[in-house]
Amino acid sequence: MKQLPEAITPREQQSVLATLRSPRRLRSEVLAGLVVALALIPEAISFSIIAGVDPRVGLFASFTMAVTISIVGGRPAMISAATGAVALVVAPLVHSHGLNYLTATVILAGVLQLVLGGLGVAKLMRFVPRSVMVGFVNALAILIFLSQLPHLLGVPWLVYPMVAVAIVVMVALPKLTTAIPAPLIAIVVLTVATIGLGWSVPNVGDEGELPSSLPALLIPDVPFTLQTFGVIAPYALTMAVVGLLESLMTAKLVDDITDTHSDKSREALGQGVANVVTGFFGGMGGCAMIGQTMVNVKACGARTRISTFLAGVFLLGLVVGLGDIVALIPMAALVAVMIMVSVATLDWHSVHPKTLRRMPKSETVVMLSTVGVTVATGNLAYGVGVGILTAMVLFARRVAHLTEVVDIAHPDEHTRVYAVRGELFFASSNDLVYQFDYAGDPDNIIIDVSQADIWDASSVATLDAITTKYAAKGKTVSIIGMNDNSAQRHARLSGRLTGSS
Where is this chain's protein located in or outside the cell (predicted)? Predict the structure, then answer.
């Protein structure tokens, strides 16, 4: 009789204790950690080269980030390690001041992340529109794919059929069994074939020299002066913000994939702790690693902190203890894994012609601006920032047109009543002053704002301007119907917004 699968909720899948009691789920977590560790090695080496440091700096950073975040982070199964975004930020500092200033910067960035996390910066995630999130996901998929192209250009022809075979294995094997992650099978098969048949193809060893010793605790050898602080602070602040943004966006993405909620404030604090630890072990720092997180969560089905912890442990064990063997893994296998991740990550529904025709144009513009800037700069933080700004501008423009002024009553020949309807803020209130008949109106004007909300000083200034224009013609204005918040804001600011007030 066929055994029924365990009936567990998404929340229960995240439980470490429950997973330890389930051999099947524990096996998935362990194997997922191994696959992620293998995928981390060439990435960490590449990012070390970008930052201008020895490969061991990136590899050790990936180890300490993964292990630390698995304990203190807020999003189970998310992978944090050395990343390209951080490498791009710190590269100029390494070039001008060297490795010791880099480690000091990483520690300061971690401290700043702790401060930002304590101030509740994670709560700002609620202001990220869905269209920005979709653009973030699609840009991520494109960047993952583009990052594999250097491994497919100017290589022996044998690389291409190897990549194809690995993709076929990862597509076909899950239809037969999910006991072992398909990416791991693909890596093992291609590695055995390469070694056994003596194929000469690019491998992990070609990416850079692997370390042969464990990381050691150290104190950055820099002068503890204000001058040093002035040098590292701008880089540390940029690294802290970029790292938090990418980590929180990735956490939200994993929330959606796993149908669970994570503690974003704890994740922000955890990133800070992980970077402080990494700095004291001579690492280059990092943040959530989106591609490897997708390998862990989507390709391998991991759901707990166990996979993240083991990814770091396996990474260190592989590069230090089994470096000679790991160096023989063909890059074709890892490239195939990341290509499959990029395909699985892209939100294909969002770019389907039917969806694009149905979606409001403003939403599509926001999504495309996020994708375009991210792909052009190679920095997800820039793309998300531009996407959010675009969404804000388009939203303000749309809401501005929802405000109207209507002539609703003439109680007597000397009185006219206007109703203002809509949300009054800087964008919508600018044209409000032109919607009244100052010359043709009678002596008494009543402006009813019971169907409006006053949100900022610009709106109060506009109402003051309307009152002033009527007063210049000897007419009086009464503003009625304000709700409590609008009345308080109007009372506090009215008549006090110009120097002559």
Answer: Membrane
Whole-number pLDDT of residue 212? 81
C-alpha dihedral sign at 358, 363, 364, 365: positive
From residue 15, alpha-carbon distances to 8, 233, 252 in Å are: 11, 39, 19
Contact 262, 111 (CB under 8 A): no
Q: Residue 5: pLDDT above 60? A: no
List the structure tokens of 308: 């993240």
Compute the average pLDDT of residues 326-348.
89
Mean pLDDT of the chain: 90
Contact in structure between 31 and 184 (CB atoms under 8 Å): yes
CB-side neighbour CA atoms (13 Å) of 101:
21
CB 16 within 8 A of CB 306: yes
Distances (CA, A) of 325 to 75, 187, 310, 454: 32, 13, 19, 68
DSSP assigned state of 434: G
In 3D space, the residue among 132, 135, 125 whose CA is nearest the CA of residue 393 turns out to be 132
User: 454 near 483, Cβ under 8 Å?
Assistant: no
| Tokens encoding 67 | 């292990």
Average pLDDT over residues 376-389: 85
Record the pTM. 0.78
Taking alpha carbons only, the member of 434, 501, 438, 435 closest to residue 472 is 438
pLDDT band at residue 500, thresholds of 50, 70 and 90? Answer: low
How wide is the angle at C-alpha 449 spanned by C-alphas 447 and 451, nearest 5°?
A: 140
How far is it, in rounded angstroms, from Cα 238 to Cα 33?
30
Question: What average pLDDT does this structure show over 46-50?
Answer: 84
In the chain, the amino acid numbered 224 is F
Rounded to whole angstroms, the Cα distance separating 373 from 382 reads 7
Cα end-to-end distance, the chain, whole Å: 86
Of 235, 248, 233, 333, nearest in space to 293 by CA:
248
Q: Which amino acid type is present at position 159?
A: V
